[in-house]
């Protein structure tokens, strides 16, 4: 199966609120930029990339976690990050049942991560 098909199957298998939440997160991620690539990594994690990993999505028993690979290096003016705040690299958004997703803020965060990745890739290319 392709990564997109793997993610489709994962979401279809989550018949509770987590499937709907992960599907909504996915929709926002891929709508942020037409060149975002969906990948399937680490034996079962939906991953979204552009010039490097942007974020990884996982459904856990009590939450959907969206982990930004370079979250500590990007601005979060809307305060979406609520996990991993003390770390040096990643930051995460933990979504619980009933949480609202701020589409505008998440889209801005995804785009900031893409800019970070692009600039990091450009520095490596010099």
Would you tell me the overall average pLDDT?
95
From the N-terminal CA to the C-terminal CA, the straight-line distance is 36 Å
Radius of gyration: 14 Å
CATH architecture: Alpha-Beta Complex
Q: How many β-strands, per DSSP?
A: 5
Q: What string, H for helix and E for strand, traces the elements in order? A: HHEEEEEH
Kindly state the percentage of residues in helix: 25-40%
Strand content: 15-25%
What's the CATH class, please? Alpha Beta
Tell me the strand order in the biggest sheet. Answer: 1-2-3-4-5
Derived structural class: alpha+beta
Structural domain tally: 1
Shape annotation: globular
CATH topology: Aspartate Aminotransferase, domain 1
So how many helices?
3
List segments where confidence is low: pLDDT < 50 over at least 5 consecutive residues: none
What is the fold's blueprint, element by element?
Elements: H1 3-13, H2 17-31, E1 37-41, E2 45-49, E3 53-59, E4 64-68, E5 91-95, H3 103-125
Antiparallel strand pairs: 1-2, 2-3, 3-4, 4-5
Helix pairs in contact: 1-2
